[in-house]
Amino acid sequence: MTARRSILAGLVVAAIFPLAEAMADGPITPLQTRLLFSSQPSQSNFRVPLNFSNGELAYWLSLEPDFIGKHVAGLTLVLRRPRDGIHANRLDPTGRWHGKQKWIFAAADFAQGIEKSLDGPQRTVAVEWLGLVVDINVLSAIASPSDSFGGEYKWDALELQVSVKNVAPI
């Protein structure tokens, strides 16, 4: 096999494997939950299971912190399979995104309130390759200036209502 054919075959497998994996596992049980991050750890609920319709664990849905110094400056909504590595996020499986994404919550973006944030209180993320849609509603957001870095903000609390459901194939 020529090098060109090997590369092409590898690209085809890389493109089809995630779709085949998602289709083989079947639909999920729709989920509606609240995720809460608080600078007071005892008040946080930032990881919930998401099951396949047969009851098996499909994914973990979580809010993961992004630190600047000792403060949480950002939170990322992550959808991860139990066997995925710690850097995987099925909301964007390429891992090559740049700039603002609907599943990233920067404290500085909420410094003037939810309504003035770039995406506002409601966001929808279509995860077409998994046949899922994730609806996010920001219920409350409290960000304050960081005492460590000039001009930076830190999260005091963030509460999200998140629903994950199956979508019909196109």
Residue share in helix: 10-25%
Look at the structure and give the mean pLDDT. 84
Ends distance: 35 Å
Number of contiguous helices: 1
Major β-sheet strand ordering = 1-8-7-6
What is the β-strand count? 8
Rg calculated over all Cα atoms: 18 Å
Structural class: mainly beta
Which regions are unreliable across 5 or more consecutive residues at pLDDT < 50? 3-24
Shape: elongated
Describe what is shown at a glance.
By secondary structure, the chain is mainly β.
State the main characteristics:
about 170 residues, mainly beta, four-stranded antiparallel β-sheet, 1 helix, 8 strands, about 15% helix, elongated, disordered N terminus
Describe this structure in words.
The chain has one helix at 3-25; strands at residues 31-38, 47-51, 57-68, 71-80, 104-106, 122-127, 132-145, 153-166. It has 170 residues and is mainly β. The chain has one domain. It has a four-stranded antiparallel β-sheet, with no helix packed on it. Strands 2-3-4-5 form a four-stranded antiparallel β-sheet, with no helix packed on it. A hairpin with a 2-residue loop joins strand 3 and strand 4. The longest helix is centred in the N-terminal third of the chain and has 23 residues, at 3-25.
